[in-house]
Amino acid sequence: MGEGGCIFCKIAKKEIPSRIVFEDSRILAFEDLRPQAPVHILIIPKHHIEKIADIEEDDLGLIGDLVLAARNIAKEKGVDRSGYRIVINCNKDAGQEVLHLHLHLLGGRKFTWPPG
Prior knowledge:
This protein is α+β, with helices and mostly antiparallel strands. It has one domain (3-105): HIT family, subunit A. The chain contains two helices and five strands, in the order αβββαββ. It has a five-stranded antiparallel beta sheet with strand order 1-2-3-5-4, with helices on one face. The radius of gyration is 14 Å and the shape is globular. It starts with 6 loop residues before the first helix and ends in a 9-residue tail after the last strand.
């Protein structure tokens, strides 16, 4: 599915409503509809990048901004001290359901290792 049918692109364009927790000119962060933890936020670039394997050198600043947004949201949500997890899945076998690069920010409960 390309950009035209991408649900996250539609969310970024406000064609589909979401519970936004952060937005700037390049990033949108919103609550996951099927949370796996008390805090479960999806953080996406507004422009379509399918997966982490598709990032280019020009995207490196954006990737850093996504991680900084996750850090800031974790602090706002009060999970920065207790701990949180940032997950980026790449392709189906890793659990990527939506083919638009996104970070999962998860917190508010104890996690185990290894995951999955």
